[in-house]
Specification:
This protein is an alpha/beta fold. The protein has a single domain, classed as 3-Layer(aba) Sandwich (Rossmann fold), CATH 3.40.50. Helices cover 39% and strands 14% of the residues. Strands 1-2-3 form a three-stranded parallel beta sheet. Helix 2 links the parallel strand 2 and strand 3. The longest helix has 17 residues. 25% of the residues are buried.
């Protein structure tokens, strides 16, 4: 792979939407890609649409934990390896499926995930900031928002 010239032509994106990423496995994968000549990689997380084909509402806690896991991968990787994190928001599992988790119900999840990434973690201050930004009195992380 390193002799093919491909690492100079493309950038890799490592996708994982789980709430319990294998952090050490991802760090080892990044090192493997670096040895092949890929100097930078992207991470792909999800703020919605990755928990079930017929999911209607967004469980913020799942997606928040996904972001926090990616932050752990980033902190355990070489400082210059991360190009960026893409927050995906799927609405279909395939072209024949119905839509799931439409954007309006997922906006609180997007806001929490972005603030957690921006602040390097999640805290009561982050929660309060999201509530203020969205004009919400009580942001529910581990239950479905009403």
């Amino acid at each position: 792979l390193s002799g093919s010239g491909v690492p100079q032509l493309v950038q890799l994106m490592i996708w994982d939407y789980a709430a319990d990423i294998d952090v050490e496995g991802k760090v080892q994968l990044i090192e493997k890609y670096r040895r092949c000549g890929f100097s930078r990689v992207w991470f792909a997380s999800a703020f919605k649409g990755a928990t079930g084909v017929n999911q209607s509402l967004t469980l913020i806690g799942h997606h928040l934990r996904n972001q926090l896991e990616w932050l752990q991968v980033a902190s355990r990787s070489p400082a210059d390896v991360l190009e960026g994190i893409v927050l995906t928001g799927w609405q279909r599992y395939d072209h024949f499926s119905v839509l799931c988790e439409l954007l309006p119900v997922a906006i609180p999840s997007l806001a929490v995930c972005l603030q957690a990434l921006k602040n390097g973690g999640y805290s009561e201050k982050v929660k309060e900031n999201v509530e203020k930004l969205l004009g919400m009195s009580n942001l529910e992380i581990d239950t479905f928002m009403r």
